[in-house]
Amino acid sequence: MSKRKKNISSDSIPSTILFTAKILQYISTSLTVNFAKKLFTTPIRYKLPKREHEMNSNSKQEFVYIPNISKQIMVYHYGASNKKVLLVHGWSGRGTQLVKIADKLIEMGYSTISFDAPAHGKSPGKRSLMLEFIESILELEKKYGEFEFAIGHSLGGMSILNSIKKGLNVKKGVILGSGDSINDILLDFISKLHLKPEIVNLMRTSFEEKFEESMESYSGAIAAKNVYVPMLVVHDKDDEDVPYTASENIHNNLTNSELFLTEKLGHRKILGDEKVISKIQEFLLK
Hints:
This protein is of the alpha/beta class. The chain has two domains: 1-40 and 183-216, no CATH class; 51-181 and 219-285, 3-Layer(aba) Sandwich (Rossmann fold). Helix content is 41%, strand content 17%. The chain has eleven helices and eight strands. It has helices spanning 15-27, 29-40, 53-58, 99-107, 130-144, 155-165, 182-192, 198-211, 220-224, 245-253, 274-285, and strands at 60-66, 71-78, 84-88, 111-116, 149-153, 172-176, 231-236, 257-262. Strands 1-2-4-3-5-6-7-8 form an eight-stranded mixed beta sheet, sandwiched between helices. It starts with 14 loop residues before the first helix and ends with a helix. The relative contact order is 0.14.
């Protein structure tokens, strides 16, 4: 397997959080684990950028209740076609984040349905997990009927793979900048906090005791083994959030997939790149 590139450095973590983590690690392991779990499940709400204003203004919006997690999410209906495409943002993202892809889909004759995952965007709450992304996706299919395609970024891509594994019925899927291993995500997170690696095992055990299932079973590469629809896997070689080797691993575990690697776009610019959007269009129209 290719050597992994280093993810975002701990320089991006506020010094107060790093200091708190350091102190807690000396005081109590259990307090450290609880602190890390809280941070790990708390997304950041960013201000809506100008490029997303049009989709935000021109979409029909409604809150939808997700019974299995007892939470509400904000749902965006963009375009008027009966042929629907599901769009799923990543961690700390928004339902309007894939706007450039959505605009192209409308031009192609589709409409899109996207959402703010729990504790993201306009959806209430403070904490969330990928499990809640998945439950939201499956509930939206029940409410609005089957989607033609599903397109997801980062954690949204992992969520789509897991949703297809759990029965989401789409003709094709596209994932961009997605991770392949939950364990690697946890290790990266703990390393950014300058905590001991043993905290990863304790966090994982705590989550698994609560949800009574293996966290690693939700890894993108593992879910991919149970995905049989055609998939386009897109990743940038200069992505500092998620190494492109993750998509190579996912691609190698899919039955029917195409890998498209880009350069100099990073983790987020990939969503608005013309070549990437043209590639998505080409793939969906095959």
